[in-house]
Amino acid sequence: MTEYRWLLPAVMLGEQREERVGVRRSTRDWIVDIAVFLLAAGLGLLTALQLGSDTVTSPLVVVSDQVVVADQVTGAAACAMVWLRRRWPVGLALALLPVSLLSVVAAGPICVALFTVAVHRPFPYVALTGGLHLVTLVPFLWWRPDPELPFWANLALSVMIYIVLIAWGMFVRARRQLVLSLRDRAERAEVEAELRVERARHLERERIAREMHDVLAHRLSLLSVHAGALEYRSDMAQDEVAGAAGVIRAGAHQALQDLREVIGVLRLGAEGTTPDRPQPTLADLAGLVEESRRAGMEVTLDMRVGDPAGAPARLGRNAYRITQEGLTNARKHAADAPVGVTVAGGPGDGLTLEIRNRVTSGQAIPGSGTGLIGLTERAELMGGRLRYGKGTDGRFLLSAWLPWPA
């Protein structure tokens, strides 16, 4: 009898996926399972034909026709049991142990069972089932020897085939686990990237909200000043009334335009690619002061920076917003008092900004203090500091220091 067990590793070439309990086989699983079954059955058929033509004896028993028929029936049952390999791989391998002592035709299903256990189960199960099947080789080969090979050569070859088959299955399992690990790592990286994008979007919206507060508060305070003049000064000439109304109309239009831009950016979200409009710089402080003067405020600007236009963009923008909020607060709480703005510093020394005004309003205004909290956060985000309160001369002082890299 020629031993065919060494041909079986090729049967498992298409084995790649594990079928879990309660999960239907995919089309690929069906193709693999049918191929495995046909190859195992084909090998059993070749063995059965060989059994029918050989009359091999052993020291214990003569291979009679009844033994051949029993071998074929047992092998056919073992081939049918191959369909259970995905659901119960260890149970199938253990159930085939007594079969491996009797049937040559069952060589194919036994190899399939050992390979399946190596692919789908941890090493302790592999060692248990593989070790038991290796032990059964000794009595089987003694009872059903191969006439073309000596006993020890046949035993060594069969053991080598089993070991290679199990090692191959363990390699397939390790490769699957590596692929799953890499896939899980890639999914986690994608989730983390989405979280970083979402956080960046949140921070950008917070920045836009702070900018909007500063811009709208400044413009609405100008509108309030001009509207108050129209309300309380009934002796204004027609051209003055028209001028104040024009300022109110232009300021309201600009405030609405700023609001539309911000809402548009928020709607665009992460996919928005519209660039920001030009941001104010340190050189734009003169224009801001002039705008406040046109609104009726008495503002003096003491610019002690040699080249305001050369200041870093971030530094200039934050200094502009702090000055803007300071002038807005001065209009709210000291509409008729003069305001002094002092800007000094340079590269390496930092930029010092001071706004002084006398407090004349004793009324509590809704939202008071919110802008100063936002300015403090703005300065701290730059690595600077901001202080506010009554100075030694009794006037309100808003003082900020912002770093200016050398």
UniProtKB/TrEMBL annotation:
Alphabetized GO MF terms: kinase activity
Enzyme nomenclature, EC number: 2.7.13.3
CDD domains, sorted: HATPase_UhpB-NarQ-NarX-like
UniProt entry keywords in alphabetical sequence: ATP-binding, Kinase, Membrane, Nucleotide-binding, Phosphoprotein, Transferase, Transmembrane, Transmembrane helix, Two-component regulatory system
Chain segments annotated as transmembrane: 30-51, 92-118, 125-143, 149-171
Domain Signal transduction histidine kinase subgroup 3 dimerisation and phosphoacceptor: 204-267
Catalysed reaction, written as an equation: ATP + protein L-histidine = ADP + protein N-phospho-L-histidine
The name this protein goes by in its record: histidine kinase
